[in-house]
Amino acid sequence: MKRYTYLTILFAIVLAVACKQKTKDAAGNDTPEPPDTTEVKAIPAEQLISPGQSIGHIKLDGSADSIVQLLGRPDTGDAAMGSQLATWYADHDTAGYQTSIFSRRDMGGKDEPVSRIKKILVTSPWFKTAEYISTGNNLKDIGMYYTLKEGSSYKKNGQTIKTYTDIEKGISFEIDMQGKCVGILVHQPNSAADTYLNMH
């Protein structure tokens, strides 16, 4: 029995050493080992913030009606002149994290019956970009990955919230007076007109 144990250990050591050896290319030159990416795990699709595209399973230009099927009836909403704003709160508590969706109909167009999603806002840190940026990060951290331009501001609970936008990528960050991110908004990239909309 001991003999089999020693053989198993010896085999494991040989395998580990072989894995560490450099590989050769077609010309017989040493090729570098691939980088170790096991430390950083990919963000699951349902949590991923993709600038200019989506947040989780909610995609820009998707149908707003499909989101009602996904999230249920919104807790609050407003609609006027072909535009619609719908908001969901965690546990239906207005003090909880929010998800807001702004959608618009192409009035007079062939696609008029469908209200298309134009902007998505989340305040929960559960959602993250591929760089692991989420609400709770500070402006300096965010600026390492995004080219930000300061935009409009608004008041919430007596505090001024400023917005910083990477227009080319299609993402905005709401930053409180302590420099902390409190909301992330995804919108169409390179759209200077109506890039940011207060969705609170």
Molecular structure report:
It is built from three helices and 14 strands. The longest helix is centred in the first third of the chain and has 19 residues. Helices cover 16% and strands 34% of the residues. A hairpin with a 5-residue loop joins β1 and β2. The radius of gyration is 24 Å and the shape is globular. The protein is of the alpha+beta class.
Structural class: alpha+beta
Q: Radius of gyration, Cα only, in angstroms?
A: 24 Å
Strand order in the largest sheet: 6-7-8-9-14-13-12-11
Q: Total helix count?
A: 3
Distance between the termini: 69 Å
- Overall pLDDT: 81
The tally of beta strands, per DSSP, is 14
Which spans have pLDDT < 50 for at least 5 consecutive residues? 1-27, 29-38
What is the general shape?
globular
Share of residues in helices: 10-25%
Order of helices and strands: HEEEEEHEEEEEHEEEE
What does the largest sheet look like?
8 strands, antiparallel
Organism: Mucilaginibacter pankratovii
Protein name: Lipoprotein
TL;DR of this structure?
With 200 residues, the chain is α+β, with helices and mostly antiparallel strands. The protein is built from 3 helices and 14 strands.
Features:
single chain; alpha+beta; 200 residues; disordered N terminus; 14 strands; Lipoprotein; 3 helices; 8-stranded antiparallel beta sheet
List the helices and strands and how they pair.
Blueprint: H1 2-20, E1 23-24, E2 30-31, E3 48-50, E4 54-55, E5 58-59, H2 64-71, E6 76-80, E7 83-89, E8 98-104, E9 116-122, E10 128-129, H3 139-143, E11 149-156, E12 159-166, E13 171-175, E14 181-187
Parallel strand pairs: 3-10
Antiparallel strand pairs: 1-2, 3-4, 4-5, 6-7, 7-8, 8-9, 9-14, 11-12, 12-13, 13-14
